[in-house]
């Protein structure tokens, strides 16, 4: 792995990361990809997601590998006073602290906003957790599945298909809200740099995902009194799914008037250009179920390759339907280097999704591989001002730890 000489656009920003599992680590990895110095604080057992395989060595599960690059790992037992003290000493030199446990848990640890701000008044203290502290759900536990259900995502699948509610088979809530948390953290850090004043920020999962969903589906209830039901008909149409062809499936979106006129010429039905159902965008939206059903009937008459050639020639949006397996061989992703491979110091040859975006002067990059549990404990404690004897005591007492010999090095 070769990191570019130029730092990312967030070079010089230091973040104390007390998050675990997916949502928080996704937020902080995004910031780390952009050049921030992310210090991942882990308990002696490590982030729970480290135990989720597949993996070559304990504590280095695949999902954790894809959520914790560009970070340094320090182990601190925050339930002990020495661990709390070390955490506060690290916080003194950080621009932000982010956590995704419930605020009540942070208070029990003695790491609430007041305690952290006392050692660093300029710090941004950001919590991303289940529910906002001013509502009746405050303090309730929350996970991706629960929030997908609570925010209406699962019921949308049932509403569209007439089947049972389902969760999206990705950590949709964690990742969508993780990006919101990253944006909020940067906004607050920018404010702190301008004014010299830190602040406490909360990014609740329920509210964030409800905003995500209802931006599409508030519908007629956007007005008071309501002028129609909730829901965006196009997204809920039963045939809004990949179209079956004669030998497979394709993703096709015939969207604007130009697309539809070209499609009618392509299938030999030019008379439909002026029909009451297809004539303009408003008419199609009012009959979206029938419109999608019509396209579905037509698509099965040709093979995927035939449709790809015809639709692309007519400049109608179309894409091949990938699986997670075939996505690895997509020619566009290969050309842009989306799945870089490099040699990890302990895990051998690995592949990971690349950072997103291109920056002409300050490139995002994988500058650090995912660390082992506590890989940088000694380094970071030294940076926080601990002397060699103090660090040895913390190691001996189990307040911190550093990993054993690199597994790839074999036995001595």
**Helix proportion:** 25-40%
Tell me the major beta sheet: 6 strands, parallel
CATH topology of the largest domain: Rossmann fold
Approximate strand percentage: 5-15%
Order of helices and strands: EHEHEHEHHEHHHEHHEEHHHHEHEEHH
For the record, give the distance between the C-alpha atoms at the N and C termini, rounded to a whole number: 26 Å
Quick one: overall form?
elongated
Radius of gyration: 26 Å
Task: Kindly report the oligomeric state of this protein.
Answer: single chain
Find the count of extended strands (DSSP E, 2+ residues): 11
What CATH architecture of the largest domain do you see? Answer: 3-Layer(aba) Sandwich
Count structural domains: 2
CATH superfamily of the largest domain: Crotonobetainyl-coa:carnitine coa-transferase, domain 1
Rounded mean pLDDT score: 95
Count of helical segments? 17
């Amino acid at each position: 792995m070769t990191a570019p000489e130029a730092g990312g656009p967030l070079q010089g920003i230091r973040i104390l990361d007390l998050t675990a599992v997916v949502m928080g680590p996704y937020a902080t990895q995004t910031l780390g990809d952009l050049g921030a110095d992310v210090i991942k604080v882990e308990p002696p057992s490590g982030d729970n997601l480290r135990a989720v395989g597949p993996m070559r060595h304990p504590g280095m599960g695949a999902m954790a590998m894809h959520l914790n690059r560009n970070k340094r790992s320090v182990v601190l037992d925050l339930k002990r006073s020495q661990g709390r003290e070390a955490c506060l000493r690290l916080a003194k030199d950080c621009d932000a602290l982010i956590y995704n446990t419930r605020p009540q848990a942070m208070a029990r640890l003695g790491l609430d906003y007041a305690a952290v701000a006392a050692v660093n008044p300029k710090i941004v203290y950001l919590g991303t957790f289940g529910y906002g502290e001013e509502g009746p759900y405050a303090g309730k536990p929350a996970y991706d599945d629960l929030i997908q259900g609570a925010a209406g995502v699962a019921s949308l699948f049932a509403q569209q298909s007439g089947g049972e509610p389902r969760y999206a088979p990705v950590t949709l809530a964690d990742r969508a809200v993780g990006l919101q948390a990253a944006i909020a953290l940067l906004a607050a850090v920018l404010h702190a740099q301008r004014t010299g004043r830190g602040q406490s920020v909360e990014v609740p999962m329920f509210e964030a995902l409800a905003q995500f969903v209802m931006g599409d589906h508030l519908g007629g209830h956007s007005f008071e009194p309501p002028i129609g039901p909730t829901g965006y008909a196009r997204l809920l149409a039963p045939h809004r799914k990949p179209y079956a062809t004669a030998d497979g499936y394709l993703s096709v979106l015939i969207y604007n008037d130009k697309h539809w006129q070209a499609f009618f010429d392509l299938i030999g039905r030019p008379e439909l250009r002026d029909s009451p159902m297809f004539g303009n965008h408003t008419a199609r939206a009012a009959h979206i179920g029938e419109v999608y059903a019509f396209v579905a009937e037509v698509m099965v008459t040709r093979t995927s390759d035939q449709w790809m050639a015809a639709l692309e020639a007519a400049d109608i949006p179309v894409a091949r339907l990938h699986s997670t397996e075939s996505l690895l061989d997509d020619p566009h992703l290969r050309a842009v280097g989306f799945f870089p491979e490099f040699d990890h110091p302990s895990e051998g040859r690995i592949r990971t999704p690349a950072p997103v975006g291109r920056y002409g002067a300050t490139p995002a990059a994988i500058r650090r591989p995912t660390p082992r549990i506590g890989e940088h404990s000694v380094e970071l404690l030294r940076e926080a001002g601990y002397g060699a004897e103090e660090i040895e005591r913390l190691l001996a007492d189990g307040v911190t730890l550093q990993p054993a010999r690199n597994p790839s090095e074999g036995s001595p």
